Amino acid sequence: MGLLSACGAGSQITERGLKYVKLGDPMPEAGLNRWKGHAVTDTLFDEGGFSWRGMVLKYREGQVLIEEDFLKQGTVNRIRVESPQLNVKKTIAVGNTVADLLPLAKDWDVLYLADYGLLDVTSLSDYHIHFLIRDTENKQELFEKEGLKLQELSPSAQIVSIVIM
């Protein structure tokens, strides 16, 4: 059974995106002040020799970043949720912990993103949703070991972002 297989109609984050924007959709127009009921600002991401357009949607708490594809073909390539107001399976949101994630799947993959000091956690059965976790209780050496398991992380380590890609 996959991480998202029990998602009902009320779930707000799915393997394809959000209710109002999905992977592969056309990017919203540049220069808007509001979109889908949210204040928005345009942004430009620049990393690893690439730059691409993005849009930041403001929520009461946090934000959602919608990112264009790297080839600038005008489609949504990645959605980064940094707001506790949106969730996966009505239960998992930014601010939840490793302990909250553990029961959702058995096949977790954990990758340390050294440049960001974050752990990228995804279920192998539903690899489109990535949970970015900050674990300040363990030492970096643990994160760099091969075959790191979700169970080895601090149960109280928090999700800081949910990325759909």
Description:
Helix content is 5%, strand content 40%. It has 165 residues and is mainly beta. The chain is globular. A hairpin with a 4-residue loop joins strand 5 and strand 6. It has a 9-stranded antiparallel sheet, with no helix packed on it. The two termini are 20 Å apart. It is built from 2 helices and 11 strands, in the order E-E-E-E-E-E-E-H-E-E-E-H-E. It has helices at residues 98-101, 140-144; strands at residues 13-14, 17-18, 34-35, 38-47, 50-58, 63-68, 76-82, 108-113, 118-123, 126-134, 158-164.
Largest sheet: number of strands, sense, barrel closure: 9 strands, antiparallel
End-to-end separation? 20 Å
Number of strands: 11
Strand line-up across the major sheet: 3-4-5-6-7-11-10-9-8
> What is the chain-wise order of helices and strands?
EEEEEEEHEEEHE
Q: Structural class from helices and strands?
A: mainly beta
Low-pLDDT segments? 4-10
Shape: globular
**Which range does the strand content fall in?**
35-45%
The residue-averaged pLDDT reads 90
